[in-house]
Amino acid sequence: MPDWLFTDKMWNEIFALGVPVAEKILRPVLVYFFLVVVLRVFGKRELAQLNPFDLVVLLSLSNTVQNAIIGNDNSLTGGLIGAFALLAMNYLVVRFLFRHRRLDQVFEGKPTVLVENGHVLRRELAKELLTRSELMTVLHRQGFDGVEEVERCVLEPGGTFYIQRKMPPTERVEHEAVMHSLNELKGRLELLLQQKGA
């Protein structure tokens, strides 16, 4: 094997930390809490990624905070410590919120009803900074032709949409079932009459 594969400088750049371990752990933890709070403040819309602008913001956000997480250290060890700190922090927060459901509900926020009984709730839509066309895009993706087909549309705290289709009234369903049965009986009766006549 060539000597250049085993230079001390190379191994030093790969594994030697450029900053103290405590800083490598503290930086990702602080950035983690900053991003969680900022995404909570800016609302569910950012999580739903409804338009290209929101997607660009989320993608750029990770690149923007990269230097804040790694600092002046580009070593493999530093990156692994930073990644471990982020994953550990997320695990601890998720476990903590799982055990404290009320705190989780306060922190996550409440669902927002955007459509009720086929009518768009404009005030709620404006509160979430959603346009009617963005809402229609979401409905079309779920197979709805229009708002009038929707019983209820809810934007969940995690940025997902729950959409409930309008069901026909019970009387209409029963009426259609009775009419179907009558048509079936009529068809059988006509068949019997034809057989008797032959």
Please explain how this structure is put together:
This protein has 198 residues and is an alpha+beta fold. 65% of the residues lie in helices and 9% in strands. The protein has two domains: 106 residues, no CATH class; 54 residues, CRO Repressor, CATH 3.30.240. The chain has a four-stranded antiparallel sheet. Helix 2 packs across helix 6. It is elongated. The termini are far apart. The mean pLDDT is 82.
In terms of topology, how is this protein built?
Layout: H1 8-15, H2 21-42, H3 44-48, H4 52-64, H5 66-70, H6 76-99, H7 101-108, E1 112-116, E2 119-120, H8 122-127, H9 132-141, E3 150-155, E4 161-165, H10 170-197
Antiparallel strand pairs: 1-2, 1-3, 3-4
Strand order in the largest sheet: 2-1-3-4
The tally of beta strands, per DSSP, is 4
Mass-distribution shape: elongated
Q: Distance between the terminal alpha carbons, to the nearest Å?
A: 100 Å
* Structural domains: how many: 2
Please tell me the overall pLDDT.
Answer: 82
Task: Compute the number of helices.
Answer: 10
Brief write-up:
The chain has helices at 8-15, 21-42, 44-48, 52-64, 66-70, 76-99, 101-108, 122-127, 132-141, 170-197, and strands spanning 112-116, 119-120, 150-155, 161-165.
Features:
four-stranded antiparallel beta sheet, 9% strand, 2 domains, 4 strands, CRO Repressor, single chain, 198 residues, 10 helices, alpha+beta
